[in-house]
Amino acid sequence: MHNAALGADKRTLSGMRPTGPLHLGHYFGALKNWVEMQDTLQAFFFVADWHALTSEFEDTARIKEYVPELVKDWVASGLDPEKCVIFRQSAIKEHAELHLLLSMITPVSWLERCPTYKEQQQQITDKDLSNYGFLGYPVLMATDIIMYRPKWVPVGADQLPHLELTREIARRFNNLYGEYFPEPEARLTPAAKCPGLDGRKMSKSYHNYIGLNESMDEITPKVRGMLTDKARLRKTDPGDPDVCNLFPYHELLTDAATRAEIREGCTTATLGCVDCKKILLRNLAAFLEPLHERRARLDADPNAVRDILEAGNAKARAFAQGTMRDVRRLMHMD
C-alpha cells in the first residue's frame, strides 16, 4: 500500500478555518501543542478554507484575505515549514473526490446526532447554517484526516465526537472495501482554560478575545475591562482566584512563585484587581514579543506565505494522490 513505509504511528494532522485573526485561546488550545508535535511526528497542518464556506459562503472574499493571515499567525506562534507540512485544503483537489466518495457511505443519522451540529445552530444566530455543507462538514473533516492516514489527531475534548465519527467512517470504508484507513486516535491537547474577557469561551463570534497579532495598545484596555471575581466589589473584599476570570491567564502566563503571591494577595485582600491586571499585562507583553517579531519578518517578505503554501501544497498533494490511487482501486473505480 502507498506510504505504508512512513508509518501512521508517526504521523499527525490538524487544521483551522480561516475565519479571522487567531487569539490566545487558539494558541493555548491547539497551536502550542502543534509546535511541540512537529519535532517528534510527521505533521500536516492545513488551512481549511473549504470548511470556512459552511458559514462564510456569502462573503468568500474574506476567506481569501484570511488565508495568509492564518499562515502568518501559525508561523509566528512557532510552526516551522521546514519541520511540518503547511498546506491549503482547496489546493488539494483529491480532498473533494474523497469527500464525495465518503459521503456515499455515511448515514445522515450519523451527521444529525453530532453534538456541535445542533449546538452551533442554536448559538450562532447571525449566520445561515441551514446548508447541506454545514450538516455534512464532519464528512469533509473525516476526509481531511484519513487522507493522510495518521495515527494521531490533536484535539480538544469538545472535538472528540467529531473524531469518533471520523473513526466510524474509516471503519465503514474498511468493512466495505478492505482494510486500508487506520482509525485515527485522539491526542488530547492538555487542558488549558483560557476564558474570554467576559467569562464565556474565548471566541471571535463573541468578540471577547485577545488576538495574537494585537498590539499592547489594543490589548491593554481589554485587560483593564476584564471580568474578575463578581463577588469582589471592593479592593478590601477578599477574592477567590478559583472563580476569577482573570486567574486562568496567570496559570498560563505567570510563573509559579508569582502566582502564589497573587493567590495570597487576592484571598487576603492585599492585592487589588487593578494590580493583578498590571502583572498580567507585563507577562502578556513578554509572551507576545517573540510572536510579533516572527510575524514582522513575514510581513516584510511579500512572497513568504506564497512560498510556504506552494511547498506544503506540493508535499500534501503527492501524499493525497497516492491515497486516492489506492482508494479508487479498492472501490473498483480505477
Distinctive features:
single chain; 334 residues; mainly alpha; three-stranded parallel beta sheet; two-stranded parallel ribbon; 13 helices; 54% helix; elongated; disordered N terminus
Summarize the structure in words.
With 334 residues, the protein is mainly α. Helices cover 54% and strands 7% of the residues. The protein is built from 13 helices and five strands. Helix 8 links the parallel strand 4 and strand 5 (185-188). Helix 3 packs across helix 12 and helix 4 (94-103) packs across helix 13.
Largest sheet: 3 strands, parallel
- What's the pLDDT, averaged over the residues? 91
Percent range for β-strand residues: 5-15%
- As a percent range, the share of helical residues equals 40-55%
Rg over C-alpha atoms, rounded to the nearest angstrom: 22 Å
Number of helices: 13
Order of helices and strands: EHEHHEHHHHEHEHHHHH
**Strands, total number:** 5
Low-confidence stretches: 1-6
Offer a concise description of the structure:
The protein is 54% helix and 7% strand. By secondary structure, it is mainly α. Helix 2 (49-56) crosses helix 3 (60-77) and helix 9 packs antiparallel against helix 12.
Record the SSE blueprint:
Blueprint: E1 11-16, H1 24-37, E2 42-47, H2 49-56, H3 60-77, E3 85-88, H4 94-103, H5 108-112, H6 115-123, H7 132-146, E4 152-155, H8 160-177, E5 185-188, H9 216-224, H10 247-253, H11 256-267, H12 273-299, H13 304-330
Helix pairs in contact: 2-3, 2-7, 3-12, 4-7, 4-13, 7-8, 9-12
